[in-house]
Amino acid sequence: MWGSGILKGLGITFKHLWERKITEQYPEERPKLYPRFRGRLMLNPEKCIVCGMCVKSCPNNVLSFTEARLKESKKKVLTSYTIDHQYCMFCNLCVEACPTNGLYFSHDFEWAAFKREDIKTVYEPDLTGLELLALEEGEKKSAEKEAEDKLLKGVNAMIAAIKKNPARALSKVVESEEEALKLSEILGDDESKIKKLAELMVSDKEKAAKVAKAFLIKGQKKEQEG
Amino acid sequence: MQLSDLVFYALAAFTIIAALGVVALPNIVHSALCLVLTFIGVAGIYFYLGADFIGLIQILAYAGAISVLMIFAVMLLLSRDVSESNPSHKKGKYLAALFSGLFAFLLALSIYSTSWDLTEGAEIVDSIGKIAYMLMGDYVIAFEAAAILLLAAVIGAVILARGEEKR
Amino acid sequence: MVLDHDVRMLEKNNIIVTTLEKIWNWGRAHSFWPLSYGCNCCPIEMMASGAARFDIARYGYEVFRASPRQADLLIVAGPVTVKMKPVVQRVYLQMPEPKWVLAMGNCAISGGPFKDGYSVLPGCDTFLPVDVYVPGCPPRPEALFHGLLELKAKVLGQR
Amino acid sequence: MKGAETFFVDLARAIVNGLENMGMSALGAEIILLIIKFACIAGIVTVNIIILIWLERKISGFIQLRLGPNRLGPWGVFQTIADAIKLLTKEDIIPSQTDKIIFRTAPIVFIIISLMLYVVLPFGDGMAIVDLNLGVLYFISVGSLGTIALLMAGWGSNNKWSLLGAMRSVAQMISYEIPLVFSLLAVVMIAGSLNMSDIVNAQDKIWFVFLQPVAFITYFIAATAELNRGPFDMPEAEQELTAGAYTEYSGMRWALFFLAEYTNLFAVSALTAIMFFGGFKGPFLPSWLWLPIKAYIIMLVFFWLKWTLPRIRMDHLMAFSWKVLIPVTLANLVVTGCVLHFLK
User: Locate the NADH:ubiquinone oxidoreductase-like 20kDa subunit domain: which residues (chain C) (predicted)?
Assistant: First the structure.
């Protein structure tokens, strides 16, 4: 009352005016970091056994690597390991998943960059002197086949979708629902046309849109002629 | 022509141009700001005549407070486009010309009929003291009456602003 | 034209030769006034950087302006959503030249954990000319200072 | 010592004499001297304000247990110079929807008005630029014109925050002008003059702050509000109004407003020193050093208040002026009048 609170406040600030300042002057004084501080994520490539656990555990697709096999022992070795820090949220899951403690959080926090690409860390272990086995033909083939299978599956699903509900499925490639309906009329029961369009819709949407437009224009011409 | 005459003509020209601005400008906010300039010009003429107290009061009360209140009122009440907010009234222009002509005639008449006695070398010093003695001495009744009038106005404004009390 | 070694000779004799550009850059580099803008956790670190222990005021960057007209530095601290994009863009355009942009935290750099979301932009550099990226989630106040000092060096032409 | 005391007065006289010897009329010499005085004031004020802003940033840091600017030069003294250079070279934005003439003139009007305040301040014995008879009244009436500049800025910007900020500041300044004038009136009644030098001379024996403690407190509160400084910085409350009347201003135009605010601050501090703390009177040092010293100490108190107290609410602010300050100052006036009457 009567300003006694104000006077008290003024007294406190006046006291603080003369107190020792608690500022840490950053570039000269280093901050005291605790052991479990999570700075930049780092990899010790020597410890890596290329098990891929880290990649599987990462919720954000931060980590990726490429591997090869040694010619003699057939042991997996790391050819490159990329940590794309810009997606990292420092959740520690990869560090926990790593069976050899090869991944760890360093205490480095000064990594401001002028370019977005510079935020990435790429490890490329020195592999000179080691004879690497080229990827076996069979493995390569199986990978290709897998991709093909995936594509086929997608195309089949798309064809089914078009047959079931053409307006909804086709409206992804044309502008309006009316056009989609028209397109489905034009396509009719022509399996080959539907397949062609579905393949394009799965692999290349822009091309699919162009083809759909072409179909539409053709259909209109036919109508006019008819 | 002396230097002091030059000052007077400059002040008079400034005041008249600002006053014309008040009448002629299409934007009413510009008009109000011109009114401030007019007040300052009039205050300058007061200074020139040696009535520095009146001049300062002119600035304090008119330029500093009343014109601000006017701008306030304009801003609060104006809901139209401001750039055309000060329309010229062409309807009554002949009537206006007649009345302003009459007023000018009256002014000229009174100027002509005044004898304009000149007092040589009587410099006005301490105008504020003289004004104070006059207000509190000879004209005390008028002064108090004005005070009571203003008080009544203030009370009325307060009552209007409060509105009816709900019971 | 004054050659480099001439300049060095003059500086040896205590005559400082400079250009207006250098003086201007000196002034600009030492007074980034940031715009108060942020979403949630990076701004907490930003506030901490203004507080006693870290004290951004030591560099003279503590004048957080609320109006973009008086700010020099847009610290994008948080993910920019599709809906927020026009607002940030407008705020950036309202700032007077010369102006800088600092992307603070992984959300601002790349969208971070929200990068696959339908409503979040994959990084504020999709529509802003970002000068410095400060990674972290959120970055420490010192990391922000490091980014600011890097930006200072960039403005001074040292980097 | 004697030479130091009258150094500036002698200098002015020497300039006038020199000009008259060169064949100039007395009036012409006076006018040239006036121009020199104004230029000196403008220069001193600008340099002063660069120091002031640095001081405020430093003190606010110290109060919050921080260090404040300390990178540029010793203790960061060049910080404000860097800021000034930056503001000078910033783009000058004039938004397309503004009232261009008003928008451009508002900062100039504001800075001119705040510089005009210095005309009547006696910086030392016989060192006022113009020793007006009605000095105090002049100070108040010219100071009241500042509201118009703010209103122009707020209106010209064509921005709702600007207009709201301008309205707030005008309402605040007009309300607090009344207790300010009434508090000063009590001092004027004791001194028996509106001339600032006379008021200072009347404080030969005792400072008016001891004779008029109530008036001093009300004056100080009203002056803080009049300067739009914290805890009364409602007009630019950035959490609510972005930057109040200055929202649309950038670069040098904004800097002019900022400069004018600090110019006002120094002028009002000097007025406080003159009215309540014996102005340029003081022992040992020459008189023209005492006023800046006292003004600086008062300014530190302003800083101290700003960095201690939180901003108060607008309706509380207005109610405090009309319901507390004005009745108190009126009562103080009546009591002062009665005491003076019976003492005579």
Answer: 39-151
